[in-house]
C-alpha cells in the first residue's frame, strides 16, 4: 500500500497524488531553465567569435560588414543572456536566432550557424516549456 503526502494510506486501486512542490525534481526550476538559456547564448557568442577566422580562411571572402554583424550578434547574445529573468528576453533570444539566419545573405556559413543554433534554441524553449509549464 502506498501513502499520500499527508501520510494517509491510499487503498488498492486509488491513485497516489503527486507532490505539489517540485514536479521536475529541481530545487529551483526557474533558475535552472534560465541558466540553460544563458549558457546557450554564451556558447553561441563564443562560436560566432571563434568562427570569424575559419570562415575567412576556408569559406572565402568575408566582408567587413559581415564581421561587424557577427560581432554585434555575439554582443547581443551575451547581453541578453543576463536578461533572461524577464519573459521578453526569451523572445529576443528567438529573434536573435532569426537574425543569425538572415545573416546568410552576408555569407552562407552564417546561415548554417543560424540554423544549427536555431535548432538548439528550439530545444531550450522546449525544455523551458516542459519544466515551467
TrEMBL record:
<feature type="transmembrane region" description="Helical">
    <location>
        <begin position="105"/>
        <end position="125"/>
    </location>
</feature>
<protein>
    <submittedName>
        <fullName>DUF4233 domain-containing protein</fullName>
    </submittedName>
</protein>
<feature type="transmembrane region" description="Helical">
    <location>
        <begin position="32"/>
        <end position="52"/>
    </location>
</feature>
<dbReference type="Pfam" id="PF14017">
    <property type="entry name" value="DUF4233"/>
</dbReference>
<feature type="transmembrane region" description="Helical">
    <location>
        <begin position="64"/>
        <end position="85"/>
    </location>
</feature>
<keyword id="KW-1133">Transmembrane helix</keyword>
<keyword id="KW-0812">Transmembrane</keyword>
<dbReference type="InterPro" id="IPR025327">
    <property type="entry name" value="DUF4233"/>
</dbReference>
<feature type="region of interest" description="Disordered">
    <location>
        <begin position="1"/>
        <end position="25"/>
    </location>
</feature>
<keyword id="KW-0472">Membrane</keyword>
